[in-house]
Amino acid sequence: MAIAESVLEIVLATARGSAAARVSTVWLELGALSQVEVRALAFCFDAVTRGSVAEGAALEIVTLPGEAWCMPCGDRVALAKLGEPCPRCGSFQLQVLSGEEMRVKEIAIA
Amino acid sequence: MCTTCGCGQDEVRIEGVPDDRRHDAHRHADGTVHAHPHRHADDPDEAHTQAKEGGTHWHRLDDGTWHEHGHEHGHTHAGALIGGLGAVHAHGVPPSRIVAIERDILAKNNAFAGANRQLFADRGLFVLNLVSSPGSGKTTLLVRTIAALAGRVPVAVIEGDQQTTRDADRIRATGVPAVQINTGKGCHLDAHMVGDALAALPCGQGGLLFIENVGNLVCPAAFDLGEAHKVVILSVTEGEDKPLKYPDMFHAADLLLINKVDLTPYVDFDAAAAIGYARQVRPDLPAMRVSAATGEGLEAWIEWLLQGAAAATAARDQSVLALRRRVGELESELARRAPATSPA
């Protein structure tokens, strides 16, 4: 719920700054390795937006792929989940580069 | 939050006192406070049917189930979307416009964490966020650690639980100052709560500050409290594959303590395997095997703590030295530029 509330806070601040009457859509970028359960977030988002200019807003989620630096390979590799090895060489010596993002990307307002 | 269970934040208490300030006033990371009207989220259980205006992608149906759908379901759109990432629809209504935000969802918590971190640095505190399942032995380990430190460095503790002050009471019984945060329905501590607890904690310069998080191997991983390190505690009664099942927490940790090793003869736990699994999600994670009950293995843990505390104090002293030097330079510069006043 706190994640949904944080999203709402960011959305409302932007809506106020743009003198928006309504927010129709909210786009989130969530990394594949981030710690958000999407269904729960959608549920909570619906709850927290009621009574605000974002009530009824659509929630669009863009999933960003996970990427890590594989030390033995000396190269960037795709990482679908934490705990998985390098898809090329099978090593676990991985440094996560991206995929942990949780961002409010943009909103559509009227 | 709880990114998974939807727990609320309305019942936080610090030492039994409701943390009302989070409702009626905001304390910003820079210290300014402003008031705003109390707002309650509507009851999320009220029944509600689907098809909202504007093309909602998540709907809760009358039977309570949630489903996701795209624009191909036939419902009307009240607004048109131009540009952005979604499909473009034009229905002869005034267009919406897209406003870019690009802001981290946890930016607010991170700002409070940053303020905490600065305060810790200013005081030369070595701060540790102890995380684990409930019942791994965090509090017992803390009590044992305090005894083993034998007053070599100052120690203070912030305790986090849903309810009761039992853990803070146990710490205070050792003679060390402690503050209890009760989260109510909440399942993790956040940086704002820790900032408020610090205000109530008699904690001076230098030494160790332990933050014992709510027992939970999931949610605390996401919340920076301003600590130097997350220390994850896994007891031998818990199963060696926990790091694979709860990767976020082990990924976020800088030290793994395997506790209750005195029970090893009675359980089917492979400590080497557990450490190996943890290093799959967090390469080269340092690990120690300890028993809070018998004191086994504590020397390495105490040594690690003392080194951290010394480094934090040294860093603060360096800052103070650097600041003093800078003040001296500025004073000289001012004196050089001040117009000379001739004696009367």
Short structural summary:
The complex is a heterodimer of chains A (110) and B (344). Chain A is an alpha+beta fold and 110 residues long.
Task: Please tell me about this protein's structure.
The complex is a heterodimer of chains A (110) and B (344). Chain A is an alpha+beta fold and 110 residues long. Chain A has helices spanning 2-17, 38-49, and strands spanning 23-31, 58-64, 67-70, 75-78, 94-98, 102-109. Chain A has a 3-stranded mixed beta sheet, covered by helices on one side. Chain A has a 3-stranded antiparallel beta sheet with strand order 4-3-5, with no helix packed on it. The longest helix of chain A has 16 residues, at 2-17. Chain A is elongated. Chain B has helices at residues 21-24, 107-123, 138-149, 166-172, 191-200, 242-245, 247-252, 271-281, 298-337, and strands spanning 13-14, 17-18, 25-27, 33-35, 58-60, 66-68, 97-104, 125-132, 155-161, 178-182, 207-212, 229-235, 255-259, 287-289. In chain B, the strands form 3 sheets. In chain B, strands 2-1-10-9-11-8-12-13-14 form a 9-stranded mixed beta sheet, with helices on both faces. Chain B has a two-stranded antiparallel sheet with strand order 3-4. A two-stranded antiparallel sheet of chain B has the order 5-6. The longest helix of chain B is centred in the C-terminal third of the chain and has 40 residues, at 298-337. Chain B is globular and about 90 Å long. Residues 22-26, 35-57 and 70-93 of chain B have low confidence and may be disordered. At the A-B interface, α1, β1, α2, β2 and β5 of A face β7, α2, α7 and α8 of B.
CATH architectural name of the domain at 108-308 in chain B:
3-Layer(aba) Sandwich
Shape field of chain B: globular
CATH class of chain A: Alpha Beta
Sketch the topology of chain A as an H/E string, one letter per element. HEHEEEEE
- Contiguous helical run count of chain A: 2
Strand numbers in spatial order across the main sheet of chain B: 2-1-10-9-11-8-12-13-14
Bulk shape of chain A = elongated
Q: Major beta sheet of chain A, specifics?
A: 3 strands, mixed
Element order, helices and strands of chain B?
EEHEEEEEHEHEHEHEEHHEHEH
